[in-house]
Amino acid sequence: MTKVVVAMSGGVDSSVAAALLVEQGYEVIGLMLRLWSEQGDGANRCCTPDAVIEARRVADALNIPFYVRDYKEIFKATVVDFFINSYLHGVTPNPCIVCNREIRFGRLLDEAMNLGAAYVATGHYARLRQTADGTYQLLKALDSHKDQSYVLHILTQERLARVMFPLGQLTKPQVRHIAAQKNLPVHNRPDSQDLCFVGEGTYRDFLRRQVPEANRPGEIVNTAGEVVGHHQGLANYTVGQRKGLGVYRPEPWYVLRLDSATNRLMVGPLEELGQTRLKARQVNYLNDTPTEPLTITAKIRYKAQEVPATLTPLPNACAHLTFDAPLRDITPGQAVVFFQDEVVVGGGVIE
After folding, report:
1. 177: Cβ–Cβ under 8 A, 6 or more apart, which residues?
2. Which of 168, 194, 337, 348 is in Cβ range 3.0-4.6 Å of 283 for a Cys bridge?
3. 196 is catalytic
4. What residues pair up with 216 in beta bridges, in sequence order?
5. H/E stretch holding 63
6. If you write DSSP's letter for every residue of 87-131 in order, what string do you get?
7. How many Cα atoms occupy the beta-carbon half-sphere of 152 within 13 Å?
């Protein structure tokens, strides 16, 4: 019997993933990683004591073993510190992608292999397809509203061969229906919405508590370098932001750039915001690395609209993207992910 480790969070998605694999005849093991959190009442939202209890209840209902591993220090050093340092350097990170690359499909995959498992399964909404030559493609989920292929673009062929996404063919209502049918105790548990390591409030509140220097006031300037106001710390702003600038003009002004070297926030009108090009670094291609320009669609944020673009590969795991129309919210530090129809071509970090 093939052994599969399921990354369980105590939520409905990972619980149904485990239930489906049990139903399909796999030998399933539930595994939860305890991650670093802020101290206090609003601590870590993804692996609270309650979440551990819920995951264990699901495992008991499915009659599968369940283990918890302490990854607090590794998660803090790998994901949380990266998140903080990114904001200190004036870029807007996506810590979930780093977590997927280093923790969920890195360390957890190693844990699974140590338990003798052939695969790791998660509750992500995405699909896999093996081609005639034996390689794997990562595909969008059938449910476009829940598709999470964007945050999985960091996978390699070696890892694609070891992962499973049991929910890729399902919609969220179908998943909840399955959970209710199987009497899983988490069938009506609400979805997690925020960063798991942030306690009370928003990520900006988190930065104020953890790194007060991220809220050092500075000058707001226009593209001519003229001082037009003062900001309350670069961590409170992101490219494309309009509200909360405290700069009053006849027409709306937007954040154009964050300059951590000078602690200056550059703003301007909408016509100065849009860009048609970006450069990406740390580019990962899930299949063959292209040698010529490719016609693709791209997403510059997880919730962004997919738009047409031309991808030009560059040396040193870099790439240029040229868009058919200007985009407002090209933000350094965010991931840009490339698609051809339903297939994920790859992705990288916006530079």
Report:
1. none
2. 348
3. yes
4. none
5. none
6. HHTT----HHHHHIIIIIIIIHHHHHHHTT-SEEE---SEEEEE-
7. 26
List own/partner pairs for 160-164 with CB under 8 A and 24 or more apart. Answer: 160/128, 160/136, 160/286, 161/136, 162/109, 162/112, 162/113, 162/118, 162/119, 162/120, 163/105, 163/109, 163/119, 163/120, 163/121, 163/122, 163/128, 164/4, 164/21, 164/119, 164/120, 164/121, 164/122, 164/128
pLDDT tens-place string over residues 43-69:
555 667 788 999 999 999 999 999 999
pLDDT at 41 over 60: no
If you compute the radius of gyration of the chain from its CA atoms, what whole number of angstroms results? 22
Active-site entry in 47, 96, 196, 318: 196
Cβ atoms of 342 and 139 within 8 Å: the answer is: yes
Residue 148: φ, ψ to 5°: -120, 20
Instruction: Read off the pLDDT of residues 230-252 as tens digits, 9 standing for 90 and up.
Output: 998 998 898 999 988 988 888 89
Q: Please, what are the domains in the chain?
A: 3-181 (3.40.50.620), 216-272 (2.30.30.280), 275-350 (2.40.30.10)
* pTM exceeds 0.85: yes
- Specify the amino acid at residue 21: L
pLDDT on residue 176:
95
Tell me the CB-side half-sphere exposure of residue 28, using CA atoms within 13 A.
28
Q: How many CA atoms lie within 13 A of 131 on its CB side?
A: 12
**Which of 88, 75, 93, 81 is CA-nearest to residue 335?**
93
**pLDDT, position 45:** 57
189 versus 144: which is more confidently predicted? 144
Structure tokens belonging to residue 178: 């399955």
Q: Which of 46, 47, 96, 99 is catalytic?
A: 99
Q: What is the DSSP string of 225-263?
A: --EEEEES-GGG--TT--TT-----SS-EEEEEEETTTT
Better-predicted residue by pLDDT, 261 or 41: 261
Burial, 277: exposed, middle or buried (Cβ in 10 Å; 0-12, 13-18, 19+)?
middle
Look up 96 and say whether it is catalytic.
Answer: no
Q: What are phi and psi of 266, to 5 degrees?
A: -95, 130
